[in-house]
Amino acid sequence: MTALQDAEGEAVPSPKLYLSIKNLWKAFGTFLALKDISLDINEGEFVCFLGPSGCGKTTLLRAIAGLDLQTQGSMTQNGLDVSNLPPSERDFGIVFQSYALFPNLTIKKNIAFGLENMGRSKDEISGRVNELLELVGLPDQGDKYPAQLSGGQQQRIALARAIATNPGLLLLDEPLSALDAKVRVHLRHEIKELQRKLGVTTVMVTHDQEEALAMADRIVVMNHGVIEQVGSPTQVYRHPASLFVADFIGEMNQFPARSAGDNLIDIGGTIVKGEHHGLPKGDAILAAIRPEDIIPHGMGARSPGADDIIITPENAVTVDVTEMEFLGSFWRCRLRNEMFGDNDLIADFSINAVRRLGLKEGGHMTIELDQDRLMGFNQEGRHND
């Protein structure tokens, strides 16, 4: 096993490969739901499959579980080829969006279901059920029925049932989508903490970008049956491999431009610096920047201790403030300059910045397009690798 180094230079073992998917295809008649999917997942990792409806993420999860066998391709789990094994012979627990609890069984009976099928003793089952009820924070709810619990509590019980048999793999199919926003935020934190405590390899399907960013060690962004990008939350957000990824995860301004060199972008006749994009000079491209990466400077930035000296920031643009929308923790502003053509530039400014600079609708201001965050994509929406 190859050794890596931690922050202090100490040797740490490389992560152990747990689930390996190779060249997986899935067809429903003439429709290709999955197209040549290859993916490796390490032991103990929390991976999110993220993408719009119909992108193939749930189909991939069901293929891993053996609920929908792949048309071609292979899959190994913990060194065992499970490509053609039925679900009953695979080592996983699963939590569905609808919870799928047995309504006629008590909470204790629901959790005990898998253990009873394995032939465990009554004392062992009872101890394990009580342990899991404590683990999910519902020690006093064991004698109730699912209908007597809230949605969030039912989801915790579904999770307890899924991990009751100590599976090597935990599969979560949009487990939080049926809950209200506050419960969802609270429960996603609990699920992540529980996963860390147990160390169980976990794959979760979601279409909620915030959920994936908050919970995942790595995100697999999918579109039309293919993987667009695999990376940490920071990587897929800050360094999207395609315009689809950039636009799907978070907000993104995009406008037509031309390459003016490796890290230069011509937007409406104004040349600005951006990330290295490697696109040939003169090519028509798409420029993109996130609203929070637009830096406000009012009518000019002053150098510290020299109020009479005005500094023009790099990538500075003077804009009209055409609209301001208060969104609680920040203001979303629509900005206009002829270099962007008919496209308004959307910028998110903190409440303090708006107050400090005295920004108001109908006013003018100077902004800076952060050159480390201004991206260029080719006409197909991809970087020039």
Automatic annotation (TrEMBL):
<dbReference type="GO" id="GO:0005524">
    <property type="term" value="F:ATP binding"/>
</dbReference>
<dbReference type="InterPro" id="IPR017666">
    <property type="entry name" value="AminoethylPonate_ABC_PhnT2"/>
</dbReference>
<keyword id="KW-1278">Translocase</keyword>
<protein>
    <submittedName>
        <fullName>Iron(III) transport system ATP-binding protein</fullName>
    </submittedName>
</protein>
<dbReference type="Pfam" id="PF00005">
    <property type="entry name" value="ABC_tran"/>
</dbReference>
<keyword id="KW-0472">Membrane</keyword>
<comment type="similarity">
    <text>Belongs to the ABC transporter superfamily.</text>
</comment>
<dbReference type="InterPro" id="IPR050093">
    <property type="entry name" value="ABC_SmlMolc_Importer"/>
</dbReference>
<keyword id="KW-0067">ATP-binding</keyword>
<keyword id="KW-0813">Transport</keyword>
<dbReference type="InterPro" id="IPR008995">
    <property type="entry name" value="Mo/tungstate-bd_C_term_dom"/>
</dbReference>
<keyword id="KW-1003">Cell membrane</keyword>
<dbReference type="GO" id="GO:0140359">
    <property type="term" value="F:ABC-type transporter activity"/>
</dbReference>
<dbReference type="GO" id="GO:0043190">
    <property type="term" value="C:ATP-binding cassette (ABC) transporter complex"/>
</dbReference>
<dbReference type="GO" id="GO:0016887">
    <property type="term" value="F:ATP hydrolysis activity"/>
</dbReference>
<keyword id="KW-0547">Nucleotide-binding</keyword>
<dbReference type="InterPro" id="IPR003593">
    <property type="entry name" value="AAA+_ATPase"/>
</dbReference>
<dbReference type="InterPro" id="IPR017871">
    <property type="entry name" value="ABC_transporter-like_CS"/>
</dbReference>
<feature type="domain" description="ABC transporter">
    <location>
        <begin position="19"/>
        <end position="249"/>
    </location>
</feature>
<dbReference type="InterPro" id="IPR003439">
    <property type="entry name" value="ABC_transporter-like_ATP-bd"/>
</dbReference>
<dbReference type="InterPro" id="IPR027417">
    <property type="entry name" value="P-loop_NTPase"/>
</dbReference>
<keyword id="KW-0997">Cell inner membrane</keyword>
